Each structure stands twice: as structure tokens, then as C-alpha cells.
């Protein structure tokens, strides 16, 4: 059973990430089209999962709502925020994402994927540091 996810907490994280909270009512979120708004932004509402857990739905609005949707996903899935964002709830529309707390396994998988992506860069930096240390010690290559 997932932990409760509060809408105001999710909205706070998104505002801290530089997104604009449009503060739409729940009725407007369910009724309006995402491209109807002039300003790119988001709005959140509560959602009750089938098991009764209170979760949050974050919707993207504005002329470039698809990019806002990607920004919502990117911001909330940062390691220090620890949410998982999905679009698999039955009542969600194309511009909405379901937000829930990430499990320990999901966080571990993200850390491993990030380490795998950064491994070539880390290896290159270590190699350059070793070369620099060797040159500083007077062991520079002749060629």
C-alpha cells in the first residue's frame, strides 16, 4: 500500500522547481482542455487509489503543456524528492500524471541507472587525474 501523497506538498516541490501553479479548481481540471490556458503551468488535485490511499494528480496546462508535463516528471523524480510519476491510473487524461511516493526498489534502480550513465565520465575524470598526478610527480610521457 503506497504512502499518502498530499497535493500541497507536490505543488510546493513543483513551484520550487520553477513551475507556475495555476491553482485550478478540481472541476476546471476535469473540464478544461490543457491548451486552453495562455500561461504554461500546472495544477494538482487529490486522487483516491482503488485501495483507498490518497494520492495526487498533477496536470500540465498552457500552450506547451507537453513540455510542462516532462518538467513535472523530471522534477518529481529527482533523488532528493523521491516520488514516482506514472500515467496509468484509469481516470487520468493525456496531460495528467499520478504522483506517489517511490519505493526503496525504485529509488535503488534510479541510483544504479544514474551511476551507469555517469560511469564513462567518472572513468575519464579519474584517468585525467591520474595523468595529472603522474605529471606533477615528474613522470610525464616522452611522446
What's the rounded overall pLDDT mean? 88
Characterize the quaternary organization of these chains.
Answer: single chain
Count of helices?
Answer: 4
Beta content: 15-25%
Radius of gyration: 21 Å
Globally, the shape reads elongated
Portion of residues within helices: 40-55%
Main sheet: strand order: 1-2-4-3
What is the structural class?
Answer: alpha+beta
Q: Gap between N and C termini, in Å?
A: 63 Å
- Unreliable stretches (pLDDT < 50, length at least 5) are none
What's the SSE pattern?
HHEEHEEH
Question: In brief, what are we looking at here?
Answer:
The chain is α+β, with helices and mostly antiparallel strands and 143 residues long. The protein has helices at 7-16, 26-31, 65-76, 104-136; strands spanning 41-48, 54-61, 83-86, 96-101.
Textual characterization of the structure:
By secondary structure, the protein is α+β, with helices and mostly antiparallel strands. 43% of the residues lie in helices and 18% in strands. It has four helices and four strands; from the N terminus they run ααββαββα. It has helices at residues 7-16, 26-31, 65-76, 104-136; strands spanning 41-48, 54-61, 83-86, 96-101. The protein has a four-stranded antiparallel β-sheet with strand order 1-2-4-3. The radius of gyration is 21 Å and the shape is elongated. It starts with 6 loop residues before the first helix and ends in a 7-residue tail after the last helix. The mean pLDDT is 88.
Amino acid at each position: 500500500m503506497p504512502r499518502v501523497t498530499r497535493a500541497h506538498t507536490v505543488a510546493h516541490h513543483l513551484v520550487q522547481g520553477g513551475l507556475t501553479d495555476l491553482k485550478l479548481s478540481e472541476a476546471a481540471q476535469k473540464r478544461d482542455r490543457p491548451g486552453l490556458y495562455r500561461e504554461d503551468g500546472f495544477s494538482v488535485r487529490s486522487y483516491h487509489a482503488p485501495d483507498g490511499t490518497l494520492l495526487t494528480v498533477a496536470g500540465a496546462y498552457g500552450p506547451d503543456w507537453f513540455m510542462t508535463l516532462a518538467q513535472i516528471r523530471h522534477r518529481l523524480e529527482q533523488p532528493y524528492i523521491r516520488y514516482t510519476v506514472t500515467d496509468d491510473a484509469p481516470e487520468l487524461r493525456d496531460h495528467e500524471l499520478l504522483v506517489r511516493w517511490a519505493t526503496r526498489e525504485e529509488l535503488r534502480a534510479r541510483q544504479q541507472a544514474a551511476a551507469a550513465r555517469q560511469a564513462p565520465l567518472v572513468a575519464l575524470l579519474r584517468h585525467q587525474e591520474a595523468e595529472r598526478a603522474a605529471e606533477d610527480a615528474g613522470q610525464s610521457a616522452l611522446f
